[in-house]
Description:
Layout: H1 14-29, H2 39-52, H3 57-96
Helix pairs in contact: 1-2, 2-3
Amino acid sequence: MKKQLHIATNPRNRSTKYNAWIDKAQATFWLTTSANNRYDEAMRYLIRAKELSPSDNRITQVSEAITETQLTWLNSLGVDAYNKAEEIYNIWIGWNN
């Protein structure tokens, strides 16, 4: 069963509602850890905001910023893994020679 997304806002103020989804997306993304990547969850919140306000440029800006940060972080993790692998390889080669 698909989980429904809800957020507490003033039901009479549509602007407050979609801005709350944008804020929730940003806050959720920054809770990302190596063990629990929250990028997909944050992007779902931005999709919800886009449903409420399809023409709001802030949604696109936040989406691009979150994506850029995610890519930079994943690239950094990849570089770290490569460097560690190279270090282990050099230890093995040094020991083996």
